[in-house]
Design goal:
heterodimer, A: 248 residues, mainly alpha, 9 helices, 78% helix, B: 78 residues
Chain lengths: 248, 78
């Protein structure tokens, strides 16, 4: 058990696994996103209340879902960094924070553009929107803090603490639509109930969510590999890897 | 197909600008992330290769003249 744990934390081992996994992740992501988004844009029926503007849901919900999901993954990795000092966990946090930032921005942006025809306003300071904006700042803060500290280990620990403190925001985002009066509609998918939409609407939405998940997987693998190269540049296995690629 | 014609598909009954702006920004940012991350990875691979070829000295590097390189120097600001 302990050995597996150590192996999982080994950058060299991860590098190899990621290289093998990445083509599948990318192919799956592109296929699912293509099917989900074309279906959602052109074939899903119009919403009886919101008309065609609701088609933004097929990118808004995946972005918002991933934005929160990535943060939870980062927080889990932060625990691993603080408790076991596993290098790979810190590599993960550093590699995916910018991706999380972009996804949160996309959720806010598509939400604002969707809000204009639906609510009549781009932005209001309601609970869901404000808590998402805080998520954006948390991502930005984690990135800035990491860059501000030169020493790798101190930076890892400081960022891990910040990420863990910020995790309190996640349930606030999740339940904001239930705790407070808000313009935002309640969750589309719930684990305990059937979706309130017809299948022609929620199936493409589910495909887009899965597609964006795989896309995140691909991005995370690639960016973690880059970060590993930066940190392990002078090791023998990196030398063998980069020189073998040139010869091959 | 939920629309009668291509023009109707683009117009989306007046919601076209909103829908297409969102999809445009989404594709732009996702594609930018992919390209940027990929290019950074390639650049890092290249820099690792340069370091190891230079360290090899008489090895692979000597076959052709080594191009002028800029070495990154870490300056502590503490």
């Amino acid at each position: 058990m302990w050995q597996i744990f150590h192996k999982l934390g080994s950058p060299k081992w991860f590098f190899g696994i990621a290289t093998r996994l990445m083509p599948w992740l990318l192919a799956g992501a592109l296929a699912l996103l293509a099917v989900g988004l074309v279906w959602g844009l052109a074939f899903a029926p119009k919403d009886y209340l919101q008309g065609n503007s609701y088609r933004i849901i097929f990118i808004h919900v995946p972005s918002a879902f991933l934005a929160q999901s990535v943060y939870i993954m980062m927080a889990s990795a932060a625990v691993v960094t603080l408790v076991w000092r596993m290098k790979l966990a810190d590599v993960f946090v550093k590699a995916v924070a910018p991706v999380g930032l972009v996804l949160t921005f996309l959720a806010l942006f598509t939400g604002a553009v969707w809000g204009k025809p639906t609510w009549g306003t781009w932005w209001i300071w309601d609970a869901r929107l404000t808590s998402m904006l805080i998520l954006l700042f948390l991502y930005g803060g984690a990135i800035a803090l990491d860059r501000a500290i030169n020493d790798e280990k101190s930076a890892a620990r400081a960022v891990a603490v910040l990420v863990l403190v910020g995790v309190v925001n996640i349930p606030i985002i999740k339940y904001s639509v239930e705790w407070w009066n808000t313009l935002h509609q309640p969750a589309t998918f719930k684990l305990t109930e059937k979706p309130s939409m017809p299948a022609e609407m929620w199936v493409p939405l589910l495909l887009s969510v899965l597609g964006l998940y795989l896309m995140f997987g691909w991005l995370a693998c690639l960016r973690m590999q880059t970060e590993i190269l930066v940190r392990e540049q002078r090791t023998r296995w990196v030398k063998e890897h980069v020189l073998a690629r040139r010869a091959g | 197909m939920a629309f009668d014609s291509f023009t109707a598909f683009i117009a989306m009954e007046g919601h076209g600008p909103y829908v297409w702006t969102c999809y445009g920004v989404f594709f732009l940012l996702v594609a930018a992330m992919m390209v940027w991350s990929w290019r950074r990875h390639q650049a890092e691979l290249k820099s690792c290769r340069r370091v190891h070829e230079a360290a090899d000295g008489s090895g692979r590097g000597s076959a052709q003249p080594t191009p002028a390189t800029f070495t990154r120097v870490k300056v502590s600001q503490d």
